[in-house]
Design a protein that fits this description.
Chain lengths: 598, 459
């Protein structure tokens, strides 16, 4: 795209949609609107007229004011200084904006994402010397961005050739030249520590790989029952109040990813602040450092302009891809993709485009698929394997999963954590419904669990799910005729399912001990619940009445043990296993004696 | 730019007026319209093209003709004048007094549209507000800066509940009460009078600003009323350092007015004829509440949403629920049993409760007590369903205990007097009294230490 700036004039203002007469402007090009200099993006062209969607409120803008094409599409700055930051939907740094414009966001304010004044300790790659061949993704050197994130400074895509010179170790700001590269045509490129990338274009990689290891989130219902892989794509649909945001925040807090990018897309301001205030205080369970050091927030709250909401998801995923290119495992959480889809709908409605389902434009499904497709595990150009895991919250109107956004998303994703209103109402959290949720990654995850934790993982998981399915079946009978109609064996099945639900599936994000559960402890709890059920079932076969078992103290302990001992106190959890054996054995002996006497 | 006057209206329909041959009119600007009888109406530019503008007329377009309509573009946004004198007053949606007293004179004028709070400037709300209502304080606690709507239905006592909260809300151990901004859209004369009398009789009227649009006032004015009210709330909170409680009633009427105008404009409908931007529009209103760094005041919001045919999945309650931090749901069933306030705890929720309660804020057992009550009540509801099929006599002794609990809970915990102001301590003690109907080993959500300290059962 040429760098010449074109100027034109505003013809029509219809909320965020502005028509400008701007000959020669390109579709997708950034445009500065009016005397205030509001930023926008060309979404369609008709003759001399360009339709521009603006990222800010157009109040006070008049027809006849100037407009200027900037010559480039919506792009983000990529370089050291992103981590720990909070940006708006078009990557403006909100903390710096607060310093400049106070508590409210002033329109037309323009602050670059990366701090120009800050200097970073650059450590050149010792393996490269002048004359070396470098290409996109070649690591020129590193910067310790935060204590946990080593930022690899890479040759940007599109630059290839011979390294002419490289800066020695030292402190540089992001605009200083740190290397020069001469391409095969003899053109010399000056490289600094940051690069720009258009957000709507996926960043390139060498090739795509399959996911191999599960993303451990420390949440039992996810890791044990519906596992996600690093590089996978998943959705968390649920009606309001079912706990979508808590599930997303728990993943952001506890997952074993290197980088977490949290995109608050059209959601509540107060919830973003919760993340903003709590993450700098919370420890990363894997590195022991503060969580904020590996986290980056993109915030477009529901009252911020709708067009920037549409952009925010692309801005987030582009930054995710950039860290992936450094060889990191990145998790991006988008809360919520429904708001993003609604932003599409709002803009398309203003343009008078023909709606298809519930007012959504016909391109909804293809746009959704294209966003999710940017997730994946890849072989990067210069830093080995990296991945982007994309988890999108979906907010179906009225909790109806057949609505367009949920149903299209369901076709695309691999892991579906369906939240249930009924479970949430009973304060069963996380309210991930084991009947409607699914994961296409169980087989792959099983290999990891069998190797790292226990070869019986899949068997135990299947047994638990079977018990839960039985529970659903039997509950229907109970609801019709009451529990008295069930046999002791059937009532024990209900009891077993309840142990799984209360002792394993339920996990309180607010409980200091239970909020995170290591895979070892997850398996130990699952194993305990299944063992209690199986031992009990054997006793019932021998004729032990179910009431005898229901009142064993170990039943209450099984429901509570998850929050009695932390993941570090695994031995205590395992020790309970012996107590279970002992208690069950005493019941058996007691009963055998009783039988003899009779 | 100077003020321009036009007599070139070419179209008037459904609250919208089209004026042609205009030049350089700013989007969003305020408009004054003089009709054939010489009466003045107010409007706002909602689309501005080269030579034509579309105006939203707040008083509606009834009785306008095209020849004798003068349109003046005032070259300023829609604003409201603010001073401490607004307390104790009553205005319409444009800030014009309704109480027969003179207009507020002040050089502080603020555009009612507001702008978005920078998320980086917000502070997380965490100060517990005691409303004196057990189902809210104990199970769905409200904190300062939260937006917690009341989902109700026609004929349910949401207004009485809102007024009671307005009267009783305070921080624990503090006497300072809230200033109340009361915004009524499309309410009946009787409802407006109820609130006025209620505030007057409890002596808080001096601390209340009322913005009222009655059911027979122009619906278009409802679109600007909550914005005007919130601009006043922001002034009270951030200029005068007050803690403000905003009561918006009824948001359903607001959304219907929005639909009316959207239809007239020809906007593409999304669900049930509501425009696709209903969510963003509601968010612009709701998200103006909160707490800001280094500011003493705060804005807490309780919108009332009456659910058409008691349907919580209707677009208005649905989208509201996605923006607000929880909801208090009223139940017709409880109301019919004579229980006040008829709060149905199962679908009710407060998202910001977790950081406002517990050891340093209310009492250390509070979070677990809430969890335990919810678990018991959920099980009790199942048992009630079962009992309605097979009869209570067929239930096991254990299940019958749940029934007794549920009945006692509805009557004593949910039910309370309209002037009964329960302390959080009293609410939690009452919860323990009810929980103690169960043996210790059935209370798995509380800690052993809680049981040792508060359990009152014989088991």
């Amino acid at each position: 795209m040429s760098e010449t700036k074109r100027t034109g004039v505003i013809r029509d203002i219809n909320g965020p949609i502005v028509t400008v007469e701007l000959p020669g402007v390109r579709s997708g090009e950034q445009v500065k609107i009016g005397d205030l200099g509001l930023f926008g993006e060309v979404i369609s062209l008709r003759g001399q007229l360009a339709i521009v969607q603006t990222y800010e409120s157009t109040d006070g803008v008049r027809p006849g004011e100037p407009a200027q094409g900037l010559g480039w599409p919506l792009s983000v700055e990529l370089g050291p200084g992103l981590m720990g930051g909070i940006f708006d939907g078009v990557q403006r740094p909100l903390e710096k904006i607060a310093l400049q414009s106070g508590d409210y966001i002033r329109r037309g304010i323009s602050v670059p994402a990366l701090d120009r004044a800050r200097e970073w300790e650059f450590e050149p790659n010792r393996e490269l010397s002048p004359g070396a061949k470098v290409g996109p993704g070649s690591v020129l050197g590193t910067v310790q961005e935060t204590t946990t994130v080593l930022h690899r400074i890479m040759v940007p895509p599109g630059v290839e050739g011979e390294l002419l010179e490289m800066a020695p170790a030292g402190e540089y700001d992001i605009e200083s030249t740190i290397a020069r590269v001469r391409d095969p045509r003899g053109i010399s490129h000056r490289l600094s520590m940051y690069q720009r990338w258009p957000v709507r274009k996926p960043r390139p990689y060498l090739r795509r790989d399959d996911g191999i290891s599960p993303l451990i989130t420390g949440q039992r219902v996810i890791d044990t029952f519906f596992p996600q892989l690093k590089g996978g794509k998943g959705a968390v649909p649920g009606p309001f109040g079912a706990g979508k945001t808590v599930v997303q925040q728990q993943i952001a807090r506890w997952s074993n990813a290197d980088i977490v990018i949290y995109v608050g897309c059209g959601e509540r301001g107060n919830e973003l602040v919760d993340v903003l205030e709590s993450f700098p205080e919370l420890d990363d369970p894997y590195t022991g450092r503060k969580l904020m050091e590996r986290t980056l927030l993109v915030a477009n709250t529901s009252n911020m302009p709708v067009v920037a909401r549409e952009a925010s998801v692309y801005v987030g995923i582009t930054m995710a891809e950039y860290y992936r290119d450094m060889g990191y495992d990145v998790v991006m959480l988008a809360d919520s993709t429904s708001r993003w889809a609604e932003a599409l709908r709002e803009v398309s409605g203003r343009l008078g485009q023909m709606p298809v389902e519930e007012g959504y434009p016909a391109y909804l499904a293809s746009r959704l698929a294209a966003v999710y497709e940017r997730a994946g595990r890849v072989e990067t150009y210069g830093a080995g394997s990296g991945s982007v895991t994309l988890i999108g919250a979906v907010s179906p109107p009225g909790g109806d999963f057949s609505e367009p956004v949920t149903s299209h998303t369901k076709d695309i994703i691999e892991t579906f954590w369906a939240l249930s209103k009924e479970l949430a109402d009973a304060r069963h959290y996380p309210s991930i419904d084991w009947v409607t949720s699914f994961s296409k990654h169980v087989q792959t995850a099983a290999q990891w669990w069998h190797k790292e934790i226990d070869p019986d993982w899949e068997k135990r998981r299947t047994a638990a799910l079977a018990l839960l399915a039985r529970d659903a079946e039997l509950s229907r009978i109970v609801n019709l005729v009451g529990p008295e109609a069930l046999s002791d064996a059937q009532r024990w099945e209900l009891e077993g399912a309840s142990l799984i639900k209360e002792g394993v599936l339920q996990q309180s994000a607010l409980d200091e001990i239970d909020t995170f559960c290591s895979p070892q402890k997850q398996y130990a709890l699952l194993d305990l619940a299944i063992t209690i059920y199986k031992r009990g079932a054997a006793l019932i076969k021998l004729g032990v009445p179910v009431s005898e078992l229901q009142h064993l103290p170990l039943m209450a302990k099984m429901r509570r043990i998850k929050s009695m001992y932390s993941s570090e106190q695994l031995d205590q959890v395992l020790a309970f296993r012996a107590d279970v054996d002992h208690a069950m054995e005493s019941v058996r002996i007691e009963y055998a004696k009783h039988g003899e006497q009779a | 730019m100077s003020i321009k006057e036009y007599r070139t209206a070419i179209e008037a329909r459904g609250g919208l007026l089209v004026v042609k041959d205009t030049a350089g009119i700013a989007f969003g600007d305020r408009v004054q319209i003089k009709d054939h009888a010489g009466n003045t109406r107010n409007g706002q530019v909602i689309r501005s093209a080269d030579n034509e503008v579309l105006i939203l007329v707040f008083e509606g377009t009834d009785d306008l003709d095209l020849e004798n309509t003068w349109v003046r573009f005032l070259d300023e946004p829609v604003e409201i004048a603010l001073s401490p004198e607004i307390l104790g007053r009553e205005f319409n949606g444009l800030g014009v007094p309704r109480d027969g007293r003179p207009p507020v004179l002040s050089n502080i004028r603020r555009p009612v549209g507001g702008s978005a709070i920078n998320p980086a400037a917000r502070t997380y709300p965490r100060e517990f507000i005691q409303t004196g209502i057990s189902t809210i304080d104990g199970l769905n606690s409200l904190v300062r800066g939260q937006k917690l709507p009341i989902f109700s239905g026609s004929g349910l006592p949401h207004n009485r509940l809102a007024a009671q909260i307005g009267r009783q809300a305070k921080l624990v151990d503090q006497e300072s009460s809230f200033s109340v901004v009361f915004a009524a859209m499309g309410v009946s004369y009787a409802d407006a009078k109820f609130f006025r009398d209620e505030f007057a009789s409890s002596g808080v009227l001096r601390n209340v600003v009322m913005f009222i649009n009655l059911a027979d006032d122009p619906p278009v004015e409802r679109l600007t009323l909550p914005r005007t009210a919130l601009t006043a709330a922001e002034y009270l909170a951030y200029d005068l350092d007050r803690h403000v409680l905003v009561i918006l009633t009824d948001m359903t009427n607001y959304a219907e007015a929005l639909r009316e105008v959207a239809t007239a404009k020809g906007d593409v409908p999304a669900r049930k004829g509501y425009p696709g931007y209903l969510y963003s529009d509601l968010a612009e209103i709701y998200e103006r509440c909160g707490r800001i760094h280094n500011r003493h005041g705060s804005i807490t919001m309780m919108p009332v949403v009456s659910m058409p045919s008691d349907d919580i999945t209707h677009p208005i309650p649905d989208l509201t629920g996605y923006i607000t931090e929880g909801q208090i749901v009223l139940s017709r069933e409880l109301h019919n049993q004579g229980i006040y306030p008829p709060v149905h705890i199962s679908p009710s929720l407060s998202r910001l409760m977790k950081d406002g309660i517990g050891k340093d804020d209310t009492r250390e057992d509070h979070p677990r007590v809430a969890g335990q009550i919810y678990a018991l009540y959920a099980r009790a509801q199942e048992t009630r369903n079962l009992a309605s099929i097979i009869g209570a006599d067929e239930l096991s002794e254990r299940d019958r205990r749940y029934l007794t609990f549920a009945d006692a809970f509805d009557e004593r915990f949910v039910g309370q007097g309209e002037s009964e102001d329960r302390s959080i301590e009293a609410t939690l003690n009452l919860a323990w009294e009810l929980m103690s109907m169960f043996p210790r080993d059935m209370l798995t959500r509380v800690k052993e230490t809680d049981l040792a300290k508060y359990y009152q059962g014989t088991d």
